[in-house]
Structures are given as C-alpha cells and as structure tokens.
Specification:
Blueprint lengths: L1 E6 L11 H4 L4 H11 L4 E6 L3 H11 L5 E5 L8 H9 L4 E5 L21 E4 L4 H12 L1
Helix pairs in contact: 3-4
Catalytic activity: 3-dehydroquinate = 3-dehydroshikimate + H2O
Subunit structure: Homododecamer.
InterPro entries: DHquinase_II, DHquinase_II_CS, DHquinase_II_sf
C-alpha cells in the first residue's frame, strides 16, 4: 500500500511553533515512528508552504497512490484551488488537522476541502495521521 502524507503551510515548524496547540514533536520525528510502526506501508511525505506546489503534488500522486492524508493547514479555509485539485483526482484523500479547527477562531471552522475528501479527522494531535491511515487501510 502506497500512502503519501501531504502537509501545507507552517507545518514544517511542528515542534517549534505554538507548542501548546501543536505539541513539541517535529513531524519528521513523528513520521519516522509512524513508518517503523507500519512497515507494511510504503510511506512518502511532502510538505510545502506554497499552494501551487501542494496542487502539483496532488496531481502527481492522485492517480497512482492508494491514499493521501492531507493537512492543508491554513489553505483548508481559503483554497478553492486545493479543493478543486482534490475533487479532480481518483486517489482517496483523508483530511487531517492536528488541532480541533472547530474549537479555534471562527474563520477556521469552515473547510473548503472536506466535501471532496473521504472524511475529516480533527483535534487528535499527530495521532490523527495514523487514524487516517487506518481508514485508508480498511478501504
């Protein structure tokens, strides 16, 4: 099974930024642990702060991978283009958010991409990525 985790803007700062919201573990540390816990999965990881690069990656992998776990970061609430990219591909996408977007500022309550995803996991910290993996494995 080939799965890619795609993270959007500012998620390269996990472990450094707003530790009370996002924790103190870097994504790279978490990702290494996830890979060792699930050796049966061929994982790839991609992160960009640039909207167009995220769209290009979705297009690149969206017809050949078994699943995509997407945390679009702040683009979740603003990017019609990322929503359209998710709608245009065949690979199932699980939307993940580390924090509970519904417990944050009101403008974060709306996700423009959820309607084009298999589902959304929000508020469970980094464990949300593994929850997304479990869904994709059972699909």
């Amino acid at each position: 099974m080939k799965i890619i985790i795609i993270n959007g803007p500012n998620l390269n700062l996990l472990g450094v930024r707003e530790k009370s919201v996002y924790g103190d573990q870097s994504f790279e540390e978490y990702f290494e642990g996830l890979k060792s816990k699930h050796p049966e999965v061929d994982f790839e990881y991609y992160q960009s702060n640039i909207e167009g690069e995220l769209i290009n990656k979705l297009h690149e992998v969206g017809f050949s991978y078994d699943g995509i776990i997407l945390n679009a970061g702040a683009y979740t609430h603003t990017s019609v283009a990322i929503s359209d990219a998710v709608a245009g591909i065949k690979t199932p996408v699980v939307e993940v958010h580390i924090s509970n977007i519904h417990a944050r500022e009101e403008y974060r309550h709306l996700s423009l991409i959820t309607a084009n995803c298999a589902g959304m996991i929000t508020g469970f910290g980094l464990k949300g990525y593994e929850m997304g993996l479990f869904y994709l494995q059972d699909k």
